[in-house]
Amino acid sequence: MTDEPRRRRPMSRIGDLMPTAAAQLGLADELRRGRATATFDAIVAELAPAAHGACRAIRVDGTALVVEADAPIVAQELRLNALGLRDAFRAAPAGAQIEDIRITIRRAGPSRAS
């Protein structure tokens, strides 16, 4: 072993390293989508708490954010708050410059009754 002290790289925040690592792995779009989804979830929690946990951002389709609601009443709550949700999403660092929020209702899957 040498008596020389080990040189350390300057410390970096993991969040600052993620975009570069994701791009090198070909995962930049997935990272961006994940951040947008988490951002939308936080915005719904703040601006439309009655819909929080019962909806999710699916994708950005052109200039529209496509959101899936679990029930028609949740979709209605989102529609009532759509302008505020859109503006907050546009202003968020991980958001996108959308013009509209398109809301779909999740189709019920097959029954799991035994």
Main attributes?
Alpha-Beta Plaits; 44% helix; 114 residues; 3 strands; three-stranded mixed sheet; 4 helices; alpha+beta
Task: Describe this structure as you would to a colleague.
It is built from 4 helices and 3 strands; from the N terminus they run H-H-E-E-H-H-E. The chain has helices at residues 14-24, 28-47, 72-80, 82-91, and strands at 55-61, 64-69, 100-105. A 3-stranded mixed beta sheet has the order 1-2-3. The longest helix has 20 residues, at 28-47. It is elongated and about 70 Å long.
Number of structural domains: 1
Instruction: Work out the helicity level.
Output: 40-55%
Reading the helices and strands in chain order gives HHEEHHE
Assigned CATH architecture? 2-Layer Sandwich
Q: The CATH topology, please? A: Alpha-Beta Plaits
Which radius of gyration do the C-alpha atoms yield?
20 Å
Strand composition percent? 15-25%
Task: Count every beta strand, where a strand is a DSSP E run of 2 or more residues.
Answer: 3
Mind sketching the topology for me?
Elements: H1 14-24, H2 28-47, E1 55-61, E2 64-69, H3 72-80, H4 82-91, E3 100-105
Parallel strand pairs: 2-3
Antiparallel strand pairs: 1-2
Helix pairs in contact: 1-2, 2-4
